[in-house]
Design goal:
Elements: E1 8-16, H1 21-35, E2 41-49, E3 52-59, H2 62-82, E4 85-94, H3 96-103, E5 112-115
Parallel strand pairs: 4-5
Antiparallel strand pairs: 1-3, 1-4, 2-3
Helix pairs in contact: 1-2, 2-3
């Protein structure tokens, strides 16, 4: 069974350096505010479990995901460059034709790509 769902989801997992959670939380609010106006963002938010942070985010398609990464790229570099948290795992999920748009721009981050092959979208 194939799918006509073009949605791309990004699944980054971070570990927060000890004593930095308050600073990280302040920056998570900045990410949310930057993302709020993105037209192709379907949902966006952060979940926290102890010293781990996960961004749950979905986009209408690969172009929407690229627009988001362009929008928050400087802030992401600032936060990761500060050492307050570290990217531990990055997964990108979606149909292959949409994932193909992301492979070259995200190559430096070495994500794993999960190809959507079955399902539907309401």
């Amino acid at each position: 069974m194939s799918t006509n769902d073009k949605c791309v989801t990004i699944h980054p997992y971070f570990v927060v350096k000890e004593g930095e959670m308050d600073n990280v939380r302040a920056n998570l609010e900045r990410f949310v505010e930057l993302t709020r106006s993105e037209k192709d963002c379907l949902y966006y938010g952060f979940t926290i479990c102890g010293d781990k942070v996960h961004c749950r985010e979905g986009y209408a398609n690969g172009d929407g995901a690229l627009a988001h990464l362009d929008n928050v790229g400087a802030l992401l570099q600032e936060v990761l460059g500060s050492g307050m948290m570290e990217l531990r795992d990055l997964q990108i999920h979606g149909p292959e034709d949409e994932l193909a748009k992301l492979r070259e721009p995200l190559a430096d981050l070495n994500p794993s790509y999960w190809v959507l092959e079955y399902g539907f979208r309401n």
